[in-house]
Write a structure and sequence with these properties.
Layout: E1 16-26, E2 32-35, H1 38-47, E3 55-58, H2 60-63, E4 77-81, E5 84-87, E6 98-109, H3 122-136, E7 140-144, E8 152-154, H4 182-190, H5 217-220, H6 250-272, E9 293-294, E10 305-310, E11 318-321, E12 324-328, E13 335-338, E14 345-349, E15 357-363, E16 366-372, E17 376-381, E18 386-390, E19 396-398, E20 405-407, E21 413-415, E22 424-426, E23 433-438, E24 441-445, E25 451-456, E26 465-468, E27 477-485, E28 488-495, E29 498-505, E30 511-517, E31 525-527, E32 533-536, E33 539-542, E34 547-551, E35 558-560, E36 563-566, E37 573-576, E38 579-581, E39 586-590, E40 595-599, E41 605-609
């Protein structure tokens, strides 16, 4: 069994999705006003004058069962207040002010904030999530901030044992190349090439019908000439006149040949040299970095001092983290954390069951690792402390921030606080979506706008605060949230068909620390091993400043301390401060003290440091 980081592992399946929808407001005179989101609908309602606090309820179409299918929403009523929707007591005799009707549904990945195109059919959304649950053989949670929505946990269905080979959805293409990540596979299905042939795949229901189909063949066929109607006068040319004789004239033939040549050349110019409208220059606020400069020397040139080594029989399940080198001791079965500089053991922890995955987090400024087992999460810190929290099988642990966050099927959020015997329950705002916990603050995001809410917790916690993330450049349009945690929020924006990622400092009210142009297919921001560098597509970001330090020609796959790693042509390239190099060693860790952890061809793990004469 190998240890691996949950935050950087490419095989981690999606955990769930958030349902969103456009909302139509229907008043008591049956006037309907469409809006694009629940937030826009409540804002519009609050702008109107009302004698009493307005009350909304859902259209009966959402709360009544159909075709033996239970409703997705429960019937209830809510007050519309500046702080959100508040349930109306069941015994209240107040009249409803408006009805809400949902349409144009969409879902957002609860892991990364990736969105999909809208569809009018809620059943199609549920079918798509069901298909993904079947694909990953993993239950997925569908939640929503839409009022009345009943949270659903969609479990994988039994395998279809049909014999029709044509109906089999193959996991790999013919070239046996595995897909990059679960989210990439999801997005690729959302962006399937359009086809005029109907599909039974529920995921294809989210693509808009192809409105650019060519005319039918019947429309393109030139109708034949009709025969001359009877009694129509006809004109017969003189028998000595040949109406095509002029075309055989030499001058005419030269002219026609010249015109044909010009037409062919013009067509070739259009086809092979199409005119492209010049792309507007990027605003000055956008950081532009040259690709890293290759250097000929080995990444670890001069690292000739061996500090310690572990035999492959003991280091088969070994990983480097900011807290140290962690592995499973094969004799005792304990989880061991060693000092990367000396190789001495910092601390150990016994395991009641195998480790499912590991991740890094911080306790104040002290690095730590968290190991998830069947019934618990075990923490080991760089200063030699250990702690264990009980975790049930239906709880999901995510470590996108500096504090591990636990969510349950009903949307309840807990924090794993070092020193507390049990996970600490954290109050959430139902109008927002939980994203990450940094220290003792839960951060949630609004699904449809650049807005966060920070909810501190603990005995001396401050009041919750709303953070409106500023646009990185003037006139940029907000696309979606990408990630939150480790002191930063990352959002995507568009301007003149250019996709930009903005990095916001959460400790400075969302101030933009950097803006970079990224591909519109960028999926996530990842915290690298050691928690000092983040990767964002082809950019390496310094987590101390929130600014990019290097750019690669291809997307980075991970970071090891200050080294950002890319892998073009199946060869690892290590980039630091704009300089790219390769190494004859397999580097698996790199500390702030310039200690490199390598794995040799026989599996031995060794720590190297530069010699005194290097």
């Amino acid at each position: 069994m190998t240890l691996h980081s949950v935050s950087t592992g490419p095989e981690t399946p999606p955990t769930g999705f958030i349902l969103t929808a456009a909302v139509t407001i229907i008043d008591r005179t049956r006037i309907a006003v469409p809006t694009t989101s629940l937030s826009e609908a409540t804002t519009l309602i609050l702008r109107r004058r009302h004698r009493d606090t307005p009350i909304v309820e859902l259209s009966p179409a959402h709360t009544q069962p159909s075709d033996d299918t239970p409703p997705a929403f429960e019937a209830h009523r809510w007050y519309v207040t500046p702080n959100g929707l508040t349930p109306v007591p069941n015994d209240s005799t107040e009249l409803t002010t408006y009805k809400l009707s949902f349409h144009d549904f969409s879902i957002i990945s609860a892991d990364t904030g990736a969105t999909m195109p809208r569809t009018a059919d809620l059943d199609a959304v549920i079918a798509a999530v069901q298909a993904l649950a079947n694909r990953h053989v993993h239950p997925l949670q569908l939640t929503s901030t839409l009022p009345g929505f009943i949270t659903q946990t969609i479990h994988p269905q039994e395998f279809d044992n049909g014999d029709d080979e044509d109906d089999t959805d193959h996991l790999f293409d013919e070239d046996d190349t595995p897909p990059a990540s679960p989210l990439a596979r999801l997005l690729s299905r959302f962006r399937k090439p359009r086809s005029s042939t109907p599909s039974n795949d529920p995921l294809t229901l989210f693509t808009d019908p192809d409105s650019s189909d060519a005319e039918t063949a019947e429309q393109l066929i030139i109708p034949p000439r009709t025969s001359t109607p009877p009694n129509t006068p006809t004109h017969n040319p003189p028998p000595t006149t040949n109406r095509w004789a002029w075309i055989r004239h030499p001058a005419t033939q030269i002219t026609i040949a010249s015109l044909l040549l010009i037409a062919v050349v013009t067509a070739m110019v259009i086809i092979f040299f199409p005119r492209e409208d010049p792309k507007p220059p990027l605003p000055t606020e956008v950081t532009v970095l040259d690709a890293a400069t290759p250097i000929d020397t080995d990444t670890l040139v001069g690292f000739d001092t061996e500090l310690w080594s572990i035999d492959s029989s003991k280091a088969a399940a070994l990983s480097w983290f900011g807290a140290g080198v962690a592995y499973i001791d094969k004799k005792s079965g304990d989880l061991v954390l060693d000092d990367p500089g000396t190789g001495d053991t910092i601390t150990t922890a016994s395991l009641e069951s195998p480790v499912k995955y590991t991740a890094e987090f911080l306790i104040g400024d002290t690095p730590a690792i968290a190991a998830r087992t069947e019934k618990s999460v075990i923490a080991l810190t760089a200063d030699g402390k250990t702690h264990t929290w009980p975790i049930s099988g239906d709880q999901t642990v995510s470590v996108t921030g500096t504090t591990p966050m636990v969510t349950t099927a009903d949307g309840t959020v807990h924090a794993l606080v070092f020193g507390e015997d049990k996970p600490v329950k954290v109050t959430t705002n139902p109008q927002y979506i939980p994203a990450a916990i940094d220290a003792s603050t839960l951060y949630e995001f609004a699904a449809d706008r650049p807005e966060l809410v920070a909810i501190p917790f603990g005995s001396d916690a401050d009041d919750p605060a709303t953070i409106t993330l500023p646009e990185p450049v003037e006139d940029a349009a907000f696309s979606r949230h990408l990630s939150i945690g480790h002191g930063y929020a990352v959002t995507l924006w568009t301007l003149h068909d250019t996709t930009m990622a903005a990095i916001h400092d959460l400790h400075d009210n969302g101030t933009v620390t950097a803006t970079v142009e990224v591909p519109d297919t960028v999926e996530s921001w990842q915290i690298g091993r050691g928690m000092t560098t983040a990767i964002l597509g082809p950019y390496a970001i310094d987590l101390n400043t929130g600014t990019p330090t290097s750019r690669a020609e291809t997307d980075f796959i991970t970071a090891l301390g200050p080294l950002a790693v890319t892998e073009p042509d199946s060869q690892r390239v290590y980039i630091r401060d704009g300089r790219a190099s390769t190494s004859s060693h397999r580097i698996i860790g790199y500390t702030a003290d310039d200690i490199a952890i390598i794995r040799t061809s026989d599996g031995t793990v060794t720590a190297l440091k530069k010699g005194s004469n290097s």
